[in-house]
Amino acid sequence: MATESNAVRKTGAGPSYTAKDFILLAVFGVVIFLFFMILSMVLSFSIDIAYWTHAIGGIVGGIAWVYVAARIPKKGAMAIMGLIMGIVAFLMGMMWTVAVGIVVGGIVAELVLIAGKRSMPAHIVAYALFMLCWWFGQVALLLFASDSYVQMMVSAGMTAEYAQAVIDWSHGPLCVAAGVCTPVGGAIGAFIGTKVFKKHFAQLIG
């Protein structure tokens, strides 16, 4: 029985999802999203650091993300959590590209976990890419639909000058630096998570 359980954990196959699984994915998905939203609000006082939210928050968020991934080592788990987070982002009024970035990131992370047989390195790479997709969703509208972004910000009560300043930032070197550092921060957070929850990974490896 123990061998069968370990095989299930390694492959992510086996028993179907339970209500407890969905509750855990939903609760942690919402908590992680709210953490990043609050951090974004704190950092938004300066345009230069506002879009470093994912690089900085990824270190803390990675610990929680890895915990969920290790607790529910079933195929599709992280894609489901990404979908939940994307829905929350949409309902909270975030830009649609943010929701898409989160959902795509969840799918990418799940594919990496499957390919890497849910090993420790696979979790680190998966979360790093998840954070990069989320960050790219955050800046995509700035990069590819600047006019739409300005109109959206003005409608939300921001000045056109502030919105244009954000656009200018997104086309500068600091945006590139933030994009490079985002998966790095995610990898650090996931690495810490694999160490903190080493017991769960010992069960995964069997």
Give the topology.
Elements: H1 2-11, H2 19-43, H3 47-50, H4 53-71, H5 77-91, H6 96-115, H7 120-144, H8 146-155, H9 160-170, H10 173-196, H11 198-205
Helix pairs in contact: 2-4, 2-5, 4-7, 4-10, 5-6, 6-7, 7-8, 7-10, 8-9
Q: Keyphrases for this structure?
A:
single chain; mainly alpha; disordered N terminus; 206 residues
Explain what you see:
This protein is 83% helix and 0% strand. By secondary structure, the chain is mainly α. Helix 2 runs antiparallel to helix 4 and helix 5 runs antiparallel to helix 6. It is globular.
Low-pLDDT ranges: 1-12
| Mass-distribution shape | globular
Give the number of DSSP strands.
0
* First and last CA, distance: 12 Å
Main β sheet profile: none
Q: For this entry, what is the oligomeric state of its chains?
A: single chain
Estimate the strand proportion: under 5%
What structural class do you assign from the helix and strand content? mainly alpha
Our count of helices gives 11
In short:
83% of the residues lie in helices and 0% in strands. The chain has eleven helices and no strands. The longest helix is centred in the first third of the chain and has 25 residues, at 19-43.
